[in-house]
Amino acid sequence: MSKNNNFKATWTYADAPESTDHIQIKKQYELFIDGRFVKPIKGKYFDTINPSNQEKIASVAEATSEDVDVAVKAANKAFKSWSKLSGKERGKYIYRIARLIQERAREFAVIETLDGGKPIRESRDIDIPLAANHFFYYAGWADKLEYAFPNRKPKPIGVAGQIIPWNFPLLMAAWKIAPALATGNTVVLKPAETTPLTALKLAEIIKESGLPKGVVNIITGAGETGASIVNHPNVDKIAFTGSTGVGKFIQKAIAGTSKKVTLELGGKGANIIFEDAAIDQAVEGIVNAIFFNQGHVCCAGSRLFVQESVANLVIEKLKRRLETLIIGNPLDKNTDIGAINSTKQLKTINKYIKIGLDEGCEIYQPECNLPKNGNWCPPTLFLNVSQSHRIVQEEIFGPVLTVQTFRTIDEVIEKANNTPYGLSAGVWTQKGAKIFNLTQKLKAGIIWANTFNKFDPASPFGGYKESGFGREGGLHGLKSYVKFDD
Ligand code: NAP
Ligand code: MG
Questions:
Q1: Ligand nearest to C-alpha 462
Q2: Which domain holds residue 200?
């Protein structure tokens, strides 16, 4: 580890913690089925933990296959009338949900940060506003489906089983629920085991919105609960965001059935810096690409490629920037990097750091005082790596960046595409022609130019190869929730 302390600022920010006294969190949360909060049939509960201090926040119901069955029945029953409601009426409910999220945005942001460990600045400025925007955006489509699919008659599919990960808990719920409702489907959604609270808060809002009972059911539990949703015979569509491993399991499980599926899986995004890029902006872009949300981002720019002529300059500036990142209390408004989401994920990240060291890669971590309790990982660079290193090929899902250099465009395209994944990429150059050339040739579902990790509800998101298939967001996102007779 580098002990280079030359870049340390001589002053620090005063603490600026977000207050939590206005937040109401119950001791125990039940399942949201058929418009009511109900106890799990087997009476089992699990703890949800604050990863920044390991303290228990609440007990959460664990749904077994029996509860899944009740939820799917409720969704099936609700489908009969919900699917016949006019688009205009459906839209009204979705707008209402969007507005209620906005009204309670501060509460949502604090709970997201408490339960998942992400910096309050991100949950406040990105996760929650974007979640509301997804509901607004798809509310607008509800009565315009005939324009989305001209000369065709889109019909809802039925009950959508939706399974989401822990990195953007409320946002992923919004990505899944909003287009399903806009197109007339009903929903059984399962949030991740480590971050169930904002989905349960969303259930409160859904109840308050007056959405007909059974249209959205939110059930909590672990992987087994997810598997019960996947295997339920009356679920018509599976929408899954998570790891490639579980995605493969799901695809096997539904083989031979008529279930539709979309899979948003892992990634190992290439972030490519050319010598003619605006270097200081690019350095900010590198930081945002990999350290946003502690690197728990499927489309993170986790592989950096810098053109050889500017490599020393970029790496020097990047190291200096790393020294100034603030790591610690996620509720502090100054914090740049919060807590790693779970002890399990921290173990995975540390395993990869060890693999990198064992494979002879050069590591750089800034000096930082990590809090004593909780799950923490400093921002980490691996220099002098090559394509064959495991840390370059496998998704780490943490604040770890591999740094490689290149000389020519052809070389960097070859290297960037040489991975089993194909979710995201970034290109930094002043030349438009270079951007167009690369975006044609990079095998990635999302490519940013001179920016990174920018999201918009109107813009489709999804991958190639082992990053999955299907698109969420935008007009494309409606397609996975409709069927046609023709
Ligand atoms: P994960 O283990 O695949 O879990 C995702 C969800 O699936 C969780 O709700 C999980 O429940 C559930 N699950 C686990 N085993 C299951 C099974 N056998 N059947 C059905 N559901 C099951 O992934 P993760 O570790 O939580 O999330 C990180 C991964 O998600 C990364 O690989 C990341 O790249 C990917 N991701 C992709 C996107 C995208 O849009 N492409 C976005 C975000 C994340 P529990 O959590 O309760 O175990
Ligand atoms: Mg938690």
A1: 1
A2: 28-264+464-484
